[in-house]
Design a protein that fits this description.
181 residues, mainly alpha, 8 helices, globular
Length: 181
């Protein structure tokens, strides 16, 4: 196995293990939340670091893998934005006050968090379309997300899993071509 293949294998394993171990832990211990980000509020104070470790543990390795198999700026910013979501959940109030002062925004307590979370998912889907030409993955994501939004109040929880899984599958497909060489 060449060096790039080893890096791809490692980053993909770290990403998928990080993503699903945290999701399963939260699901078993606290149940399904409105979103995975809402799990941060359920964690005991001494466990809150897990949320940051989780976002970095799945987003950064998957971003590295995506960049190695042909992803560009969309892959980079999709992963970067998700990493920002986990970087400082305690500091959203300060960031929100900054935006309120700068732009006069007054509604919603968690706009910074939501901006980076939604933008990260959206940009990752754009990456699938533009950088990987994975249009079927985009169509499946949009259809399933629409159904969930119309049918459950915990749609975001499930949409997050679909977004990650679709991105992971496409990047892993491209990585498999390199790993198998």
């Amino acid at each position: 196995m060449n060096e790039i293949a080893s890096i791809l294998t490692g980053t993909l394993l770290i990403s998928i293990l990080s993503f699903f171990s945290y999701v399963v832990y939260i699901w078993i211990k606290y149940g399904i939340h409105t979103s995975i980000s809402a799990s941060w509020y359920s964690l005991e104070e001494k466990q809150k670091w897990l949320f940051t470790a989780w976002t970095w543990g799945f987003a950064l390795p998957l971003t590295i893998a995506a960049m190695l198999v042909g992803g560009g700026w969309f892959a980079f910013f999709g992963g970067a934005f998700i990493s920002i979501v986990g970087a400082a959940p305690r500091n959203w109030d300060g960031a929100n006050r900054f935006l309120e002062n700068l732009f006069g925004l007054r509604e919603g307590e968690k706009r910074v968090h939501k901006f980076f979370a939604y933008a990260g998912v959206l940009i990752s889907q754009v990456s699938l379309a533009i950088e990987f030409e994975a249009y079927l993955a985009n169509i499946i994501f949009v259809v399933l997300s629409s159904i969930l939004l119309l049918s459950t109040n915990k749609a975001i929880w499930w949409i997050e899993k679909i977004a990650y899984t679709s991105y992971f599958i496409i990047v892993a497909k491209y990585a498999a071509d390199i790993i198998m060489i």
